[in-house]
Amino acid sequence: MIGIDVGGANLKIVNAKGAHIHYCPLWEHAQITSILEQYVTSPDDPAAVVMSGELADSFSNKMEGISFIVDAVKRAFPRACFYGMDAKFHHRAVPQLAAANWLASAACLCKEYPDAVLLDIGSTTADIIPLACFESLPGLTDLLRLQKGYLIYTGMLRGNVATQLQFVLINGVKTPVSSEYFAASADAHLVLNHISPDQYSCDTPDKKEKTKAASLRRLARVVCADLEEIGKHGAMLVAEQFWDVQRKLICDQVRKVTAESGARQIIVAGIGAQLFSDELGGTDLTRILGPVADALPAYAVRELAISFKNPSSSSPKKKK
């Protein structure tokens, strides 16, 4: 059994060998099928799939995106089944498949962590999922999750730094920021040593190097400056103030959902798991599940499919 999570920017795969993450931006007509074919061992290979990439603006509506993704996956894995927002598996394109990846994670973990809030902090978004209230989660669309504070559109890699900032203090001067896409979240996290250059897996805003020096240049442009104008210190101030805002936004909302749901613990997955588990005093699922925690929905839908075929199987096994 192979687990697949088709996001707008990343294609995440979990099989018996572990987790595999491919940068695969759907708005650039990425070749989902050709990537997946690398993991085919037999025409009869089973696959369990979740998605969120149907929201990519290359599609005119979600159903068009769902159909595109289902067709692309089935060309590689004809027996693929797809987990939906109704907490059921489907074998064809239906509206319930839209953005069900977070629900698969919740369904997989809720028995093991029934009193927890799950934060899955990825490249683009932060999913905040009250596992203690699992019965109320099926059917929640991304619109509803935004309204309830269960989805925040900020992440570790993608996203415009300027969307989180109205101004920064440069040498004590309140300085408005440009709304142009000059620097990404990854630029701030790279210079702050929150990620490594290898983890900067998305495109850079200027299509140039993924180095600290290049990231500092991009961060300086957020205040319409060259790096020589404000220096490394000024560019670092942009990164630090972005992180202050992002950290507060996510952590405050996680704590709010924790209090509202009556949860007693916080568990964290995704590329930002270690960073945010430290901030929140939570449990880093990477230490329990291993690298698959960075591809949690793909891992989760695989486990759910295995359990569906073997109802007597136990909860997901912990991996070293």
Walk me through what this model shows.
The structure is a single chain. By secondary structure, the protein is an alpha/beta fold. The chain has 2 domains: 2-99 and 292-309, ATPase, nucleotide binding domain (Nucleotidyltransferase, domain 5, 2-Layer Sandwich), CATH 3.30.420; 112-284, conserved archaeal protein q6m145 (Nucleotidyltransferase, domain 5, 2-Layer Sandwich), CATH 3.30.420. The protein has 10 helices and 13 strands. Strands 3-2-1-4-5-6 form a 6-stranded mixed β-sheet, with helices on both faces. Strands 9-8-7-12-13 form a 5-stranded mixed β-sheet, with helices on both faces. It has a two-stranded antiparallel sheet with strand order 10-11. β5 (81-83) and β6 (89-90) form a beta hairpin. α3 crosses α10 (296-309) and α5 packs across α6. The chain is globular, with a radius of gyration of 20 Å. Mean pLDDT is 94; it is low at 311-320.
